[in-house]
Design goal:
The protein has helices spanning about 10-20, 30-35, 45-55, 65-75, 85-100, 115-120, 140, 150-160, 175-180, 205-215, 235, 245-255, 275-280, 295, 310-320, 325-340, 345-355, and strands at about 1-5, 55-60, 105, 125-130, 145-150, 165, 190-195, 220-225, 255-260, 285-290, 305. It is α/β, with parallel strands linked by helices and about 350 residues long. α14 links the parallel β10 and β11 (about 305).
Length: about 350
């Protein structure tokens, strides 16, 4: 099969990437695409790489990366002076026509208009949406032939709308380990770390718990949107800056403990990327307890769970003081991820769903 993977990146990441790579916006489409993929931001080209290993053609499009997409348009004969926001979907349609995919896999279901999705559907491709955040409107969901989600509780909700839906977990790309080794990453440079969205409002419950815990345990913070916390907050005093893509992996790799918390829409289920990013790089994961955590890892042996602030603080302190226990859990967690939770595993599962 031939896959076209439609993705987006956080605007803050795109801005930072082009800022630290002056002149990149003037390079060819291929050069810009490779530069973005090599950051390992989000899923980068993990899907196409794994699908390629499994014998299928695939290409990722970063639909909101204006310099990248405009470079493609220029190289394919388009010289329009219309603002990119008005050209964005037209370029995607042209890319789809050029690549002639059997499957269009949409990583950000909310980003694209229903009109675009309907036009893609009329091209004859199977339109697949992926979601691990709040669901779009019912009419948007119905624009897809299939929706895969790492939220187990979303599957039946989508099926109730008359849309085929299947459970597909998140994974890890082992190529990250080679990049970290070549970059000279070193273990145990940090104590406990949290990397992610530090909003005081959007993720208020989970971040408030981490903020309280950081008053009682050594926790450092990387990420974005930390400015909403007061100057007295340990999130502000423990803030070390943004960490995108491979730099995020490096922070996790160099930490003794990687902390995780889920967003509210995950409800009672463990599902986010940090589960596999932290274990994948071989760092002990300390994550909020969820009903299905044992379906992914063995709690207490491959990862460690916490229920509430006191237990989080207690376990941070305990595992910082007990290196042998921490190392054993980290090693077991990494072995489990590399054995069962890579993107090659996930793409094999996706192919089975599609062939079914």
């Amino acid at each position: 099969m031939r896959f076209l993977i439609l993705d987006t990146c956080y605007p803050a990441f795109l801005g930072a990437h082009y800022s630290v790579n002056p002149g990149l916006a003037g390079h060819s489409y291929d050069d810009q695409w490779r530069s973005l993929m090599d950051t390992f931001f989000g899923t980068a080209d993990s899907y196409s790489h794994a699908l390629g290993e499994l014998g299928h053609e695939a290409h990722e499009i970063v639909a909101n990366a204006a310099p990248l997409q405009l470079a493609w348009a220029r190289e394919h004969g388009s010289r329009s002076r219309v603002p990119f926001r008005l050209l964005r979907e037209r370029i995607v349609l042209e890319q789809t026509a050029a690549l002639e995919p059997d499957v269009v896999y949409v990583q950000n279901m909310k980003f694209f208009s229903t009109r675009l999705l309907e036009r893609l559907r009329r091209s004859g491709a199977t339109i697949v949406g992926q979601i691990a955040s709040e669901a779009p409107t019912a009419s948007k969901v119905r624009a897809f032939d299939l929706v895969v989600t790492s939220f187990p509780h979303f599957v039946e909700r989508f099926r109730a709308l008359g849309v085929r839906s299947e459970y597909l977990r998140i994974g890890f790309d082992p190529r990250v380990l080679d990049r970290l080794e070549h970059a000279g990453a070193a273990r145990d440079r940090h104590e406990a770390v949290f990397v992610g969205a530090l909003n005081r409002t959007q993720h208020s419950s989970g971040n408030a718990l981490l903020e309280r815990a950081a008053r009682r345990a050594p926790i450092e913070f990387w990420g974005y949107a930390a400015g909403g916390w007061p100057a007295s907050s340990p999130i502000r005093s423990g803030y070390r800056g943004e960490a995108w893509g491979i730099e995020m992996y490096r922070v996790l790799y160099e930490a003794r403990i990687a902390l995780n918390r889920h967003i509210g829409v995950a409800e009672v289920y463990a599902n986010n990327m940090r589960l596999h990013e932290a274990t994948g790089v071989g760092t002990m994961l300390l994550t909020d307890e969820k009903e299905n955590l044992a379906d992914l890892f063995v709690p207490g042996r491959e990862v460690v769970g916490y229920a509430g602030e006191d237990e989080l603080v207690e376990k941070v302190v305990h595992y910082l003081e007990h290196d042998d226990e921490r190392h054993a859990i980290a090693a077991a967690g990494q072995a489990r991820t590399l054995r069962e939770h890579t993107y090659r595993h996930r793409m094999a599962e996706l192919l089975t769903i599609l062939e079914d």
